[in-house]
């Protein structure tokens, strides 16, 4: 294992089942969708082999900006030099994306995954980038975020690589668009089975069959693996 790999951590920034996003007016469907999305991303992170931290950042402030910047700062204080940030709303995020982002650190290159709604589903940065102020003056959770982030990177002369654009799932409309995509993946089938009520009893067996990591809300999440 090279030093870049050991010095890299993934911040899984997620509200888990407390998300304010509305996927369905039915509580059971809403929770089922949140659970599947959370576990899908967790599975990809674990497949990458990188150390990771799961955090909602609530101990660092009230606003989204305060929470995510606080969580990032806390991880760097643990001694990591490189960080990859992801959320739980991009089902097409893969372990390959994470490994690619980690490898780019060797050439001092950040990796940015643009979302179709103007956000970013993956952001990698070094401790030096963070201290330079790459997260300053950003409208978090807005359609301008991705553009503003790239402007900051350009202003600070930070080299970056863009991943392919992916859709974020924020509501029923975005899920409908995701389910209509031509490559009908496993995660699409699972979400469809939940939202279209195709044999609800099969949801759990589908999750197990496709080897998504089971989530235990009452158990403290692993901080570093």
Structural account:
The chain has 225 residues and is α/β, with parallel strands linked by helices. The protein has one domain (3-209): Spore Coat Polysaccharide Biosynthesis Protein SpsA, Chain A (Alpha-Beta Complex), CATH 3.90.550. 41% of the residues lie in helices and 14% in strands. It contains 9 helices and 6 strands. The chain has a 6-stranded mixed β-sheet with strand order 2-1-3-5-4-6, with helices on both faces. A hairpin with a 5-residue loop joins strand 4 and strand 5. Helix 2 runs antiparallel to helix 8. Residues 198-207 and 212-220 have low confidence and may be disordered.
The CA-CA distance between the termini, in Å, is: 14 Å
Q: How many H/I helical runs? A: 9
CATH homologous superfamily identity: Spore Coat Polysaccharide Biosynthesis Protein SpsA, Chain A
SSE string, helices as H and strands as E: HEHEHEHEEHHEHHH
CATH class descriptor name: Alpha Beta
Major beta sheet summary: 6 strands, mixed
What is the CATH third-level topology name? Spore Coat Polysaccharide Biosynthesis Protein SpsA, Chain A
Write down the overall mean pLDDT.
84
Low-confidence region ranges:
198-207, 212-220
Provide the β-strand percentage band.
5-15%
Number of DSSP-assigned strands:
6
């Amino acid at each position: 294992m090279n030093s870049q790999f050991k010095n890299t951590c993934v911040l899984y920034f997620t509200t888990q089942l407390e998300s304010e996003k509305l996927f369905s007016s039915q509580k059971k469907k809403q929770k089922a969708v949140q659970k599947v999305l959370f576990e899908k991303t967790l599975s990809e992170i674990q497949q990458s082999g990188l150390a990771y931290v799961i955090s909602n950042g609530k101990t660092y402030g009230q606003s989204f900006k305060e929470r995510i910047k606080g969580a990032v700062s806390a991880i760097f204080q643990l001694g990591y030099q490189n960080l990859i940030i992801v959320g739980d709303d991009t089902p097409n995020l893969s372990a390959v994306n994470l490994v690619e982002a980690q490898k780019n650190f060797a050439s001092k290159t950040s990796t940015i995954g643009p979302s179709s709604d103007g956000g970013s589903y993956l952001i990698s940065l070094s401790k030096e980038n963070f201290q330079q102020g790459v997260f300053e003056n950003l409208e978090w959770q807005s359609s301008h975020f991705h553009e503003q982030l790239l402007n900051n990177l350009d202003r600070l002369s930070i080299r970056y690589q863009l991943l392919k654009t992916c859709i974020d799932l924020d509501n029923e409309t975005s899920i409908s668009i995701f389910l209509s995509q031509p490559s009908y993946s496993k995660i699409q089938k699972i979400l469809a089975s939940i939202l279209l009520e195709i044999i609800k009893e099969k949801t759990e067996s589908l999750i197990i069959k496709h080897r998504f990591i089971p989530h235990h809300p009452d158990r403290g999440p692993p901080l570093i693996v």
